[in-house]
Specification:
With about 450 residues, the protein is of the alpha/beta class. The chain folds into 3 domains: about 1-105, Beta-Lactamase, CATH 3.30.450.20; about 145-310, P-loop containing nucleotide triphosphate hydrolases (Rossmann fold, 3-Layer(aba) Sandwich); about 315-445, Helicase, Ruva Protein, domain 3. It has helices at about 1-10, 30-35, 35-40, 45-50, 60-65, 105-140, 145-160, 175-185, 205-210, 230-235, 250-260, 285-290, 300-305, 320-335, 345-350, 360-370, 380-385, 400-420, 420-430, 435-445; strands spanning about 10-15, 20-25, 55, 70-75, 80-90, 95-105, 165-170, 195-200, 215, 225-230, 240, 265, 270-275, 280-285, 305-310, 340, 375-380. The protein has a 6-stranded antiparallel beta sheet, sandwiched between helices. A 5-stranded parallel beta sheet has the order 8-11-14-7-15. A hairpin with a 6-residue loop joins strand 12 (about 265) and strand 13. The radius of gyration is 38 Å and the shape is elongated. The relative contact order is 0.07.
């Protein structure tokens, strides 16, 4: 009867007399403790503890304290146990038996450790996600959905930490200034100023004083206290010279000297001023052609063109068109306190267009379209009113079905990237999971 009761108990059972000599153990004892029942019975718990079968001996602890005790116990085989032992007394109060129950918690402790590691990992991911969100907010004006733009952003991130001069080239309106700001934000000079000047927007006779500044009384109309130039303002930051091909040749010589010596002299001054800045330039011209015509200095070109980055035109990164258009819709809705949206057909027409003016043209077109269209939904008829879209020489390179297919692919890619699986993408797209799965296979996992 007693043995049957012990066998029915799930925990390991260990019974000793009042002196700590083993009287009985459960059938599972040998497997757990690595000691056969026949070898355990008759032995004293102090001997077994000394031989390392368990540490500490809870039986000995109970015999000393006379009270029920629960402890964690380490076995000789390395397993962890939680053990509870209680004294049994005779009528005079003397301890005649100590019975203990032990349960293996090795797996539980392992899971607890894994859980703790997982929590630490989740916290690291949370911090990384916070940093990524921070960077996303800092670069929220940049849309990188097309593979070419994604590749461009990777290049910019690799280049940004180094102080090497960067030249951005590309058609007018592709966003060279925006990418220059991104380089600055990702650089070690991010806490410094980002100073921009368009070399083609300022008359040549004023450009020198804008760049280098001037001392008081340098020329007629000069400020009484003089003026700090853009180069000085970029101290410890970034100087961005847009349309560098428009820089007059006499200023090209002075800029070359600044790059070489890291010193400037204000107009009308004699004192040299130390400067420290990162230089980024941009052009929509072919500078090598200007060099051939002696309109641009060869030595300056090679100083500026340490890292050359070409920003692709919008027609070369068509998968950016839809998200860019959506971005501008949100931007102008907020600016003009509207609540308009574009129809799918309109997005398809935008995707099919060549956009010779690139992102700047797209932004201007969306703004005009939202202001001039009636109702909250902008439809194809609103675009038909735009004379530019009636010009056969400037309309899309794609047929309408091709444009719609490209639009669908862009939507599917964006939804799958956001959700990470077909079920989540289906929810975002408002379609069934099987349909989403087929489209993901068609456009992404092909």
């Amino acid at each position: 009867m007693f043995e049957a009761l012990i066998e029915a108990i799930h925990d390991d059972v260990f019974i000793t007399d009042g002196d700590g000599n083993v009287l009985e153990v459960s059938p599972t004892f040998e497997k757990t403790y690595g000691l056969a029942k026949c070898e355990a019975i008759g032995r004293n718990v102090r001997e077994l503890e000394a031989e390392g079968y368990f540490k500490p001996s809870i039986t000995f602890m109970v015999l000393q304290s006379g009270e029920k005790t629960t402890i964690s116990q380490k076995l000789k085989n390395g397993r962890d146990m939680v053990v509870t032992a209680a004294p049994i007394r005779d009528e005079s109060g003397k301890i005649i038996r100590v019975i203990s129950f032990s349960r293996d918690i090795t797996e539980f402790l392992l899971l607890k450790e894994q859980y703790s590691e997982m929590e630490s990992q989740v916290e690291r991911y949370r911090e990384e996600l916070s940093e990524l969100r921070k960077k996303a907010r800092e670069t929220e004006d940049i849309v990188a959905n097309d593979e070419k733009t994604i590749s461009l952003m990777k290049t910019l991130r690799r280049v940004a930490p180094f102080d090497a001069n960067v030249m951005l080239s590309g058609e007018s309106g592709v966003g060279k200034g925006l990418f220059a700001r991104y380089i600055h934000k990702e650089s070690r000079r991010a806490k410094g100023a980002f100073i921009e000047i368009n070399c083609g927007a300022i008359p040549a006779n004023l450009l020198e004083s804008e760049l280098f500044g001037y001392e008081k009384g340098s020329f007629t109309g000069a400020l009484h206290k003089g003026k700090i130039g853009r180069i000085e303002l970029a101290q410890n930051g970034t100087l961005f010279l847009d349309e560098i091909g428009e820089l007059p040749t006499d200023l090209q010589v002075k800029l070359l000297r600044v790059i070489q010596d890291k010193k400037i002299t204000r107009v009308g001054g004699i004192k040299e001023i130390d400067v420290d800045f990162r230089l980024i330039t941009a052009t929509n011209q072919v500078l090598t052609a200007l060099m051939a015509g002696r309109a641009f200095r060869e030595d300056l070109y090679y100083r500026l063109n340490v890292v050359s980055i070409v920003v692709p035109s919008l027609r070369e990164r068509r998968e950016d068109i839809v998200p860019l258009a959506a971005f501008f819709v949100r931007q102008f809705n907020q600016r003009y306190q509207m609540n308009k949206h574009l129809s799918g057909e309109v997005y398809a027409m935008l995707t099919a267009r060549k956009w010779p003016g690139n992102v700047r043209e797209l932004a201007n077109f969306i703004e005009r379209l939202m202001i001039t269209s009636e109702g909250d939904k902008v439809v194809s008829a609103d675009i038909q009113e735009e004379a530019e879209f009636k010009d056969g020489g400037r309309t899309g390179e794609l047929s309408l079905p091709e444009a719609i297919a490209r639009l669908e692919e862009s939507y599917v890619r964006s939804a799958y990237a956001a959700a990470g699986n077909s079920a989540g993408a289906a929810k975002l797209l408002g379609i069934s999971q099987p349909t989403a799965f087929r489209k993901i296979q068609k456009y992404i996992q092909k």
